[in-house]
Prior knowledge:
The chain is of the alpha+beta class. It contains five helices and seven strands. Helices cover about 40% and strands about 40% of the residues. A hairpin with a 3-residue loop joins strand 4 and strand 5. About 30% of the residues are buried.
Amino acid sequence: MRRPLVLAGSTLAAVVMFVVAIGTLVPQTVDVSASSMIDAPRAEIWRVASDFEGAFEDSNPAHRGTTVLSDPKAPLRDGLRFRQEEYVGGLRGVLEAELFDVYPQARFGWRAETDYTLWGLPVATVEEGGIFRIEESREGDGFRVSHLVWGNFPDTFYGRLLSWVSVALLDMETDAERHTRVELEYFERQLEGARDG
């Protein structure tokens, strides 16, 4: 009876050590992009996408209280700051982001340090950001609207292990891509629905 327990315990310990070794040697990052074709004027797409406290907040049920911290709140510009609470992969994230590389009606970038918690307990602070673009379609049927989103876990033993568990085991990239796609599809429905209605 004792020998099978020792064997099971040894096997479990070996699996745990393997996961720790892989996780610390091969850190993972989140790097996803989603896009949608929107048949609406470029200026209207920009108006909706840049309405952080309105349309952007409403674009995803995972968003909680997006607030522009800069004064004035509009227009979008380099250095504009906003705060957002959201849920990604079951974790609650609170970010304070800053915009950069803003080209009205074309693109903007954002970067933030996001504090993630689970059941109120701190999990990690992740450096993340994105590039939102509105580009002409080669097919001529509106504009290709895309959002590239990335995230880097802390470069510590814990951060590398957490990155591997989150990305390789829990497939956080799929959840991040789905989260981003929901927002773009909302913009598409709002803009094309307003045009058709």
